[in-house]
Design a protein that fits this description.
Bound molecules: nicotinamide-adenine-dinucleotide
Largest sheet: 7 strands, mixed
Helix content: 25-40%
Radius of gyration: 22 Å
């Protein structure tokens, strides 16, 4: 059947104003670097340069940590909690007011479809600030003692897949608990963090409470290893997470790590197939599969294997790939040339290992970084594509016969961030959830997030929880 064609429906790009060049946000002001240099951030959908951004050097990081320390001691920690709460509510409201602009900025810098930045990322960012604004003056009821104390200055390093959402996950609970922060966004997606710096100014947040230092791995390392940091919060790859855990252990710093994943999305024979297929598509093609908790391993019960794969292929033929700012787009651009190379390499390995590769026919734009939605069938547990995180729109399909076998296969991974279960039987959902070694288990849905719900990993997916009451613990001296 021919694909239904939509006329282009581009969101207005002009709603987001991007400066030619950005300094570092330290002590409430944008300042020039003292020992860093400039680099460019591009749109992954067109490779066009969006802005020039600062790569902070160690002296810049030191200035930011000093400002955060001063603000912690003199302003933020002594402030009555209800006052802190007001600032967080104010930030949440400004995010809502500027939501359209922030969504455009996020899609331009990251490559994700505007439908997702507009309907998922930015609303969740605001929700997160609202949620933790509510906790700020109720910490003594959170279950961490009658007078819980903040930790001090938090150094926070985040990845590029949900740039502003990861910023919210880090900054909102830290501030609610009375800490001040120095945050480093990922090098390929600094723009919404810099817009957030403007929002802090707009909200009259006292100088030094939030500091944003842009840069790459070296800047991140300088921040993590700075002796003035009391707590490190990191989201990113397991490889870098291990280095950070070592550095924190040496310096006796508290730390929480949110790392990679290789989640199993498990479909039983009694699941409603069309609904499950939507969940499979959402599980692996949402945000181009750049999702730590992506359902990248599909486990299908053998009796419905053909039915599910046929329906999945049929659905994949309808996915629209292209301009992230087009409101019809389902799949946007891969975030960087480096990530695209990694996805291509692992997909090649999948073929070499003997799995069958399939993508729907689709035209990819001439410029930018693109990869078609892809599934591999005939995958065995030993295959690298079943074990390693691809972090792209690539699904590995395996089968099982019994719930016990599904559990054994699902847990056969060094990771443990999330899992999905599709069945009509409530008792089976509970049986599975009790046995899956994963921080989040979704039942008959996938990739659902809520600020009130804790999120985090088992094993090499990291430790510590973000979100919910549990997320406060990471920023309190308990
Ligand atoms: P990455 O680890 O390369 O980079 C993450 C951040 O760390 C970036 O800001 C980077 O500049 C910085 N960094 C790099 N080297 C550093 C070092 N030595 N010291 C300090 N900071 C350093 O990861 P990435 O490629 O940007 O992100 C993708 C990874 O993040 C995936 O593995 C994904 O699963 C994971 N992730 C996890 C979660 C979660 O909540 N568990 C959420 C999103 C992404």
């Amino acid at each position: 059947m021919p694909k239904f064609e939509y006329a282009p429906a581009p969101e207005s790009r002009s709603i987001a104003s991007i400066a030619e060049s950005y300094g570092l946000f330290i002590d409430g002001k944008f300042t020039d670097t003292v020992d860093g240099r400039m680099f460019k951030t591009i749109s992954p959908a067109s490779e066009e340069v969006l802005a020039e951004v600062t790569e902070a050097g160690p002296a810049d990081v030191d200035r930011a940590v000093t400002a955060a320390r001063r603000a912690y001691e003199q302003t933020w920690a002594p402030m009555p909690p209800a006052q802190r709460s007001k600032y967080l509510f104010r930030i949440a409201r400004i995010i809502q007011e500027r939501a359209r602009e922030l969504a455009v900025l996020e899609s331009l810098d990251n490559g994700k479809p505007i439908r997702e930045s507009r309907d998922t990322d930015i609303p969740l960012v605001a929700a997160h600030f609202f949620y933790y604004a509510g906790w700020a003056d109720k910490l003594e009821y959170a279950g961490y003692g009658t007078s819980p104390k903040p930790l001090g200055v938090a150094g926070q390093v985040i990845p590029w897949n949900f740039p502003m959402l990861m910023l919210a996950w880090k900054i909102a609970p830290a501030l609610a608990c009375g800490n001040t922060v120095v945050l480093k966004p990922a090098e390929t997606t600094p723009l919404t963090a810099l817009a957030f710096a403007e929002i802090c100014q707009q909200a009259d947040l006292p100088p030094g409470v939030v500091n944003i230092v842009t840069g790459a791995g070296d800047t991140g390392r300088a921040l993590v290893e700075h002796p003035g940091i009391d707590k490190v919060a990191f989201t990113g790859s397991t490889e870098v997470g291990k280095q950070i855990a070592k550095a924190c252990a040496r310096a006796h710093k508290k730390n929480t790590l949110e790392l990679g994943g290789k989640a199993a999305n498990i479909v039983f024979e009694d699941a409603p197939v069309d609904q499950a297929v939507e969940g499979i598509v959402n599980g692996i093609f949402f945000n181009q599969g750049h999702v730590c908790c992506a359902g990248s391993r599909l486990l299908v019960q053998e009796s419905v294997y053909e039915q599910v794969i046929d329906a999945l292929k049929h659905r994949m033929e309808k996915l629209r790939i292209g301009d992230p700012l087009d409101k019809n787009t389902d799949i946007g651009a891969i975030n960087s040339a480096a990530q695209l190379a990694k996805i291509r390499e692992l997909s090649k390995v999948g073929e070499e290992e003997g799995a069958a590769r399939w993508s729907p026919p689709c035209e990819l734009p001439a410029h930018g970084f693109w990869f078609p939605p892809t599934i591999f069938t005939g995958v065995s547990q030993a295959h690298r594509i079943a074990r390693e995180e691809i972090f792209g729109p690539v699904l590995s399909v395996l089968t099982f016969r019994t719930p016990e076998e599904a559990i054994q296969k699902a847990n056969n991974t060094p990771y443990g961030l999330s899992a999905g279960v599709w069945t009509e039987k409530g008792s089976l959902i509970l049986w599975m959830a009790a046995r899956l070694r994963a921080g989040v288990v979704w039942a008959n849905t996938f990739n659902r997030f809520d600020p009130a719900s804790p999120f985090g990993g088992y094993k090499e997916s990291g430790y510590g929880r973000e979100g919910g009451r549990h997320g406060l613990e990471a920023y309190l001296d308990v």
